[in-house]
Amino acid sequence: MEAEVIYDSTSGWIRIGEDPSEENVRIAEGIIFGLVGKKLQQVWLRPNFPEEKIVQERIISLRKMKYSELKDMVLNKEVITEGVVDQSGIPYQISIRSFFDDRKIESIRTTVSIFEVRTNGKWWQFWKNIYEPLATEDFIKAPDDNFIDE
Questions:
Q1: 70 exposed, middle or buried (CB, 10 Å; 0-12, 13-18, 19+)?
Q2: CA 125 from chain center: how many Å?
């Protein structure tokens, strides 16, 4: 008999096995066993994608910026690009942009995208097309420093 596999795209968890379980036991980061009595009923897995964590860290710091600082980035047409390396040594290119999301109320959308970069020992090159980031996240801030659509 083949186990049922369900992917929850909202949370990122993958469930393998029958539903429901009586007790969930966290085995390690991203691994949960669902038990019925002492019988293993399901396994929950949540893969850890380092690029999503890197984007989240940038978003958290950018959200602390004042609207006026973000507006300066927009008016100066500033695009921030930086290289980072994750814990396993994989290099990434981060792109940070701010732009008017709604000119009428002058709300500003700030986006953070991350791209994998590979090196052949001589130069860096984008592993994927620049238009296909591995992860992207954004937020919108109003002139009164409140967030929109949250």
A1: buried
A2: 22
The amino acid at residue 3 is A
User: H helices of 40-146, where?
Assistant: 50-63, 67-75
Name the residue with tokens 């893969």. 47
For 53-66, the pLDDT digits (tens) are 889 999 999 999 99
Residue 6 C-beta-side C-alpha neighbours within 13 Å: 12
Domain map of the chain by residue range? 5-45, 50-141
**Of 1, 18, 24, 14, whose CA–CA distance to 49 is shortest?**
14
Do 125 and 103 touch, CB atoms closer than 8 A?
no
